[in-house]
Amino acid sequence: MKSKLERYVENIVRHTECSKEEKEDLYEEILIHLKISSDYLIENEGLTREKAEERAIQLFGQEGEIGSQIQQALFPYRKELMLTLSISSLLFTISIYVLSLFVEGDFYVGWLCYSMCLSSLILILPLNQHFHINRKLWINVLLIFHTLGQLYGWLIVGDLDHSANVGLTIWVWLNIALSIGLLYWITIYDYGSNQKHMKLLHGLNIASGIIIIGISLFLIVGGLIMIGEFHFMMILFASPIAVWTALYVAQLKLVKKNKNIAFVLGFIPIVAGILILFWIYGPLLYL
């Protein structure tokens, strides 16, 4: 059974997004420091082992707060960039909604709710100090769907007949660039210079994932607009996402055994995405 000190240190480490090796080193360093502190309290203040550990924990600080401080030291400016992305996206969403409502007479309530919710979650997660979650996974998922939401916002901007069109287009693409940049940064951090192949593999899958998910959502939304109700075809439109996910998992399992096969699988979604894009937009080239 783990001691109170060990559980306390685990909670601190959970608030960081370090690599596995860094988490192990961080765990050992903090645990050793707390044990030395509790031993000192036993020898000099005559406390029992249990009371000394409680006092050492109290002096060290609240685990969420300490974990966030360590996170900020390890990843300077990431929190600031996340907050910037969230606030910028919220303001962009409100601006587009107001313009489309009062200038064009249209309103996109579904997109408004979608974009506002994702932007708010991106705002909340960097400030979270109390919930033990796999923040790296959840932030990456949010950033992918946030990017897709901003791309849809760009399409809305394209339909607006307003002098602010150019400025709004630049604004939304800055949001998209920041979102994708953070996605790459968070994903590939665990892999050092001796694992460049892992960085490349994740990079390929992030790029292909954005393409595949974007195309699937475009086809699903287009189908709902044309048909007006759910149809079995919508499941087929969503199937590329399942295929991409399965290939991604397969690559991560195969890369340690055979890099070449893993990279071949990594290029399949990209080639498929390009072919699908050509199938959708190819006929327009001849018009």
Give your account of this protein's structure.
24% of the residues are buried. Helix 2 packs across helix 3, helix 6 runs antiparallel to helix 7 and helix 9 packs parallel to helix 11. This protein folds into three domains: 67 residues, no CATH class; 115 residues, no CATH class; 97 residues, no CATH class. The protein is mainly α and 287 residues long. 82% of the residues lie in helices and 0% in strands. The chain is globular, with a radius of gyration of 24 Å. The mean pLDDT is 79. It has eleven helices and no strands. InterPro entries: Perm_prefix_1. Keywords: Membrane, Transmembrane, Transmembrane helix.
Radius of gyration: 24 Å
Please summarize the sheet with the most strands.
Answer: none
- Which structural class fits the helix and strand makeup? mainly alpha
What percentage of amino acids are in beta strands?
under 5%
What is the typical, i.e. mean, pLDDT?
A: 79
How many domain regions? Answer: 3
Helix content: over 70%
Helix-strand string: HHHHHHHHHHH
Shape: globular
DSSP summary: helix tally: 11
Distance, first to last CA: 71 Å
Number of strands: 0
Low-confidence stretches: none
InterPro entries: Perm_prefix_1
Keywords: Membrane, Transmembrane, Transmembrane helix
Transmembrane segments: 81-102, 108-125, 137-156, 168-188, 200-224, 230-249, 261-281
